[in-house]
Amino acid sequence: MFSSLAPTARRLVTVALLVLASGCQAGGCVANVFGDVIGVTGDVYCDRRFVGPTKDPAPFCQEVIDTLAVSEVEDDCRDKHTARTGEGKCPRENVIAGCKLHKENDDGSEVWDWYYDVSELEDASARDDAGDGAPLFDDPVRTKDEVRALCADPKRYEEGATFVEP
Questions:
Q1: Do 18 and 64 fall within a single domain?
Q2: pLDDT of 21
């Protein structure tokens, strides 16, 4: 079947079959397969629990999977939020649940917001001698139902989001 196709066409057909057989989203798969041509994808996170002194922390970490824009996400995280960032996935320790965003990114990447039990961080902040007595987190989530409500909130996720267990 493939012998009558030119070598380049055979390669494209093979790649297309691999992408279809893998079951992953086409954009991310194509970016991974053609990584040497269009760039290498990676995973990156922005942990908003840990921010600089001029920002208010938030009880979640945003994770971007299979993106071509790892350094851009890291820069944005540092510049906009002064938050902790790095390559890889968000830490899973103390995760309550998450929201998988429905937003479609140009590079085929996928985005999750993972919400955390931040009671240990709040306790540590209360024991801090420099603490001013103000709560560390404005409105932390405490239960899976609260995370589920956030995922369903169109004001928070305009394109929608699906509740996910850790």
A1: no
A2: 46
